[in-house]
Amino acid sequence: MIPEAVGFLICPHCGGDLRQNGASLICSGGHTSNIARQGYVSLLGRDSGTHTADSAAMIAARERVLGAGLFEPVAEAIEAAVADPSLEGVEGAVLDLGSGPGCYLERALEAAPERTGIAVDNSKFAARRAARCHPRAGAVVADIWDEIPLHSGSAAVILNVFAPRNGEEILRVLAPGGHLITITPGPDHLKELIGPFSMISVDADKEERLRETLGPLAEGLESSALAWKMMLSRSELADLISMGPSAGRLNVAGLEVALDRFDYPAEVTGSVVVSVAVKPT
Predict the structure, then answer these.
(1) Which residues have CB under 8 Å from 68's CB, separation 6+?
(2) CATH class of this structure's domain 3-278
(3) Is the C-alpha dihedral spanning 179, 124, 71, 163 positive or negative?
């Protein structure tokens, strides 16, 4: 855990400041959280859950897909949003909620060279990779449906890419003038794969539900559509299926049968909505 990240974190049990003591983070209330040898720290609260956490195989597949640049338009959109000049006077970290392996946080930190990054995910397998995604990044295992273990107003930027949102906690953690950047699936996202792989389809009311979850932050929310085509090899298509919420809906034999239905390289549509909300000052 990098020292710069520790100052943003709070104890998940009492909300107190944390400081590093050897291979642990401790608070004045006597609570201790050990730093894993891979560099991340678990700050799960008493009521936190990890039953929905991504597996090691899912995280590895996602890392391969993102590392191959298949979602490059999303990464570029994040870089542009993080580099918005209106953020120059806002102090705080770049917080990635539901970070996965930290690939998007890495790109965000390249666009914000003076900021510290904090990856938060409920998967220890994600945190292991995110802890080394960038020299200025720290990684935390936490449940975003519980309290986010960061000081109030300590994030200048919050990334939320294909991940759940706790609107109340996002509002608390985001600094005045800070930007929340969300990436949600568009109506045509992976449309060629939904039937063959029994994938979860995109909710037609997703935009409205986004606004509902954000509460006061939804005022002034600006959204834009982004679409691109991916030409995928068989292994890339398998990884794309295996990295997301539809992973496991087909057994191994069923997955192979579905993969056999395609000619390669297979053309697949990427479609997302990029939304930016600004917390009033």
Answers:
(1) 236
(2) alpha beta
(3) negative
3-state secondary structure of 194: coil
Look up residue 229 and give its two tokens: 């085509």
Q: Per-residue b/e over 169-180, b at no fewer than 16 CB within 10 Å?
A: bbbbbbbebbbb
Mean of all residue pLDDT scores within the chain: 93
SS (H, E, C) 195-214: CCCCCCCCCCCHHHHHHHHH
Cα 208 to Cα 225: distance, rounded to the nearest angstrom: 15
Give the pLDDT confidence of 171-220 residue by residue, as tens digits: 999 999 999 999 999 999 999 999 888 887 777 666 777 888 888 888 88
Helix/strand/coil for 63: helix
Rounded to whole angstroms, what are the CA distances from 158 to 137, 161, 168?
14, 10, 13
Q: Contact 122/143 with Cβ under 8 angstroms?
A: yes
Domain boundaries, the chain: 3-278
Q: List residues bridging with 120 in a β-sheet.
A: 97, 140
Q: What is the dihedral of CA 135, 3, 147, 173, to 10 degrees?
A: -80
- The answer to whether residues 115 and 159 touch, using CB atoms and an 8 Å cutoff, is no
Sheet containing 24-26: order of strands: 19-21, 24-26, 32-34
Angstrom distance (rounded) from CA 104 to CA 272:
15
Q: 114 vs 51, which has greater pLDDT?
A: 114
pLDDT digits (tens, 9 = 90+) for 250-276: 788 888 999 999 999 999 999 999 999
